[in-house]
């Protein structure tokens, strides 16, 4: 597997292709710097001018482009591109990335009625709920992707825990060999139904993506329409109590400027305090749906550099130098592929889709970004070069030793936390490179915590170059695989798919009652 540097145009200013947020026609856009921010501007001949903040920090924007890669796509695309991106999803033969994480919506029903939700049966007027047989085929479609079978599936919705056969589909995912099985949930059923979390664990669940908007009740009342903080705490405790081991939790806060952006630090500190079960925090800046005027949009827009700035100011743990784009880990995937002789999952999204940092947490709970004691740029650059020089070579042991020597080379012992030396860090990294030592892998998982953000697009900041490189996909009952930002914005495949495979809400209620809609 040869992953090459990205073909996207780097630097500013530049042009890209986008969509008109009104008519969804493909139009050109300019990306440029203004007052230290990166802006996107476009003009539709029919609907006029639109301008938005693409990224709020030009320095971080340019840094992210240093780690841009184009992936290897798929060998067995479902669709041949003819209309042009994003109107040929399936995946198509010009998509540059394979599926790193697949979302599988089990239902659009929910046990809540959140004001900011973009997918629920009440507003849609119909119920979308694939049968168990359809879900099974959707899972098989993901595992059939080549050259890299989809390794991670996330059951979503609506609220997936209310799907009638949720335990059975978790078991089916395990049977089909998914190494990582996740569920995106509000935690309500986990908190209220004794034994439900344990049942999910026993069925094969690995990770709970827990909707988590902060530690203040007013956040939930404003965003979700009801008090929920106690529900979140009970859901977390239910994971802590799973036996014989624990599942892990990823906190997923939707950040809205002026609503809860002042609580980024509180959420990170809470995750560190509960690191026995919380492995990561994945912030999601809000995306705008429907029509919204420019003044209101610019006031509410929260971008990934805003997340970096809030995290640093509110925790004192990180600075913007500690944050990297998601593709920074691509050299690790490339090296493991060469080492094992098999293509491995690679995170090759567009460099402006996500930012993240890893924190090393000692036994006293002190968190230090690994960038303080590892030269990330040097290590990843050398590892990428080593992988490409070693492509096709049969002797694997010398290759592994060279990689460990690179880790030692770029380890800053004088900056490392007390008790952490190069040898221990190499051992932790070895667990990742070997992929076989499960105990060591568990050790590094709990010593390190990822803090990151993914900013999904809306009609105003839509960049088709991002869609072409998306690694987070939806799978549909038609066994199509569709990039996230194409599914939920732009052409809005979600609406088409759900209407095709749904029943009217009144018909559903007549048969099943109104609960959960």
Account of the 3D structure:
The chain is of the alpha/beta class. It folds into two domains: 1-185 and 458-511, no CATH class; 320-448, no CATH class. Strands 7, 9, 10, 11, 12, 13, 14, 15, 16, 17, 18, 19 and 20 form a 13-stranded mixed sheet that branches. The relative contact order is 0.15. Residues 435-445 have low confidence and may be disordered.
Provide a brief overview of the structure.
By secondary structure, this protein is α/β, with parallel strands linked by helices. It has two domains: 1-185 and 458-511, no CATH class; 320-448, no CATH class.
SSE blueprint:
Layout: E1 4-5, E2 14-19, E3 26-34, E4 37-44, E5 48-55, H1 58-65, E6 69-70, E7 101-105, H2 121-124, E8 126-128, H3 132-143, E9 152-156, H4 166-175, E10 180-185, H5 188-192, H6 196-203, E11 207-211, H7 217-224, H8 229-240, E12 248-252, E13 254-255, H9 264-273, E14 278-285, H10 294-300, H11 304-315, E15 324-325, H12 330-340, E16 354-361, E17 367-369, H13 376-389, H14 397-409, H15 422-434, H16 438-447, E18 448-454, H17 464-468, E19 472-475, E20 481-483, H18 484-488, H19 493-500, E21 502-504, H20 505-512
Parallel strand pairs: 7-9, 7-19, 9-10, 10-11, 11-12, 12-14, 13-14, 14-18
Antiparallel strand pairs: 1-6, 2-3, 3-4, 4-5, 8-21, 15-16, 16-17, 16-18, 19-20
Which descriptors apply to this entry?
517 residues; alpha/beta; 2 domains; 13-stranded mixed beta sheet; 4-stranded antiparallel beta sheet; 21 strands
């Amino acid at each position: 597997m040869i992953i090459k540097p990205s073909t996207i145009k780097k630097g500013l200013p530049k042009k890209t292709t986008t969509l008109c947020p009104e008519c969804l026609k493909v139009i050109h856009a300019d990306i440029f710097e203004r007052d230290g921010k990166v802006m996107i501007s476009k003009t539709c001949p029919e609907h006029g001018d639109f301008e938005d903040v693409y990224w709020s920090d030009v320095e971080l924007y340019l840094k992210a482009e240093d780690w841009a890669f184009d992936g290897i796509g798929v060998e067995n695309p479902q669709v041949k591109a003819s209309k042009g991106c994003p109107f040929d999803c399936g995946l198509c033969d010009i998509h540059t990335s394979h599926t790193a994480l697949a979302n599988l919506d089990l239902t659009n029903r929910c046990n809540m009625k959140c004001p900011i939700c973009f997918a629920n049966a009440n507003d849609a007027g119909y119920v979308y709920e694939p049968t168990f047989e359809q879900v099974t085929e959707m899972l098989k479609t993901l595992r059939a992707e080549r050259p890299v079978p989809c390794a991670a599936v996330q059951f979503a919705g609506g609220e997936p825990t209310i799907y009638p056969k949720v335990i059975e589909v978790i078991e089916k995912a395990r049977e089909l060999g998914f190494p990582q099985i996740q569920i995106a949930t509000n935690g309500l059923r986990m908190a209220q139904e004794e034994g439900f979390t344990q049942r999910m664990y026993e069925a094969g669940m690995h990770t709970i993506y827990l909707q988590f908007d902060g530690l203040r009740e007013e956040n939930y009342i404003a965003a979700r329409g009801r008090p929920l903080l106690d529900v979140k705490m009970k859901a977390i405790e239910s994971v802590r109590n799973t036996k014989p081991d624990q599942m892990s939790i990823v906190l997923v806060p939707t950040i809205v400027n002026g609503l809860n952006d002042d609580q980024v630090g509180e959420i990170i500190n809470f995750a560190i305090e509960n690191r026995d079960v919380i492995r990561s925090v994945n912030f999601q800046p809000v995306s705008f749906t429907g029509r919204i005027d420019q003044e209101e949009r610019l006031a509410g827009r929260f971008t990934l550099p805003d997340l970096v700035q809030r995290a640093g100011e509110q925790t004192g743990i990180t600075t913007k130098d500690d944050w990297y784009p998601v593709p920074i880990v691509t050299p690790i995937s490339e090296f493991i592929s060469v080492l094992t002789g098999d293509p491995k999952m690679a995170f090759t999204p567009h460099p402006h889709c996500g930012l993240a940092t890893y924190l090393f947490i000692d036994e006293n709970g002190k968190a230090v970004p690994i960038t303080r004691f590892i030269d990330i740029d040097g290590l990843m650059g050398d590892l990428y070069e080593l992988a490409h020089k070693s492509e096709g070579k049969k002797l694997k042991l010398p290759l592994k030793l060279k990689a460990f020597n690179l880790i030692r080379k770029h380890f800053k012992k004088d900056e490392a936390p007390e008790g952490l030396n190069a040898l221990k860090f190499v051992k932790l990294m070895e667990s990742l490179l070997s992929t076989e030592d499960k105990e060591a892998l568990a050790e590094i998982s709990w010593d390190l915590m990822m803090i990151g953000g993914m900013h999904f697009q809306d009609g105003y900041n839509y960049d088709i170059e991002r869609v072409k490189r998306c690694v987070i996909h939806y799978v549909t009952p038609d066994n199509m695989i569709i990039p996230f930002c194409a599914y939920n914005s732009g052409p809005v495949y979600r609406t088409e798919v759900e209407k095709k495979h749904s029943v009217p809400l009144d018909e559903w209620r007549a048969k099943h009652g109104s609960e959960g809609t």
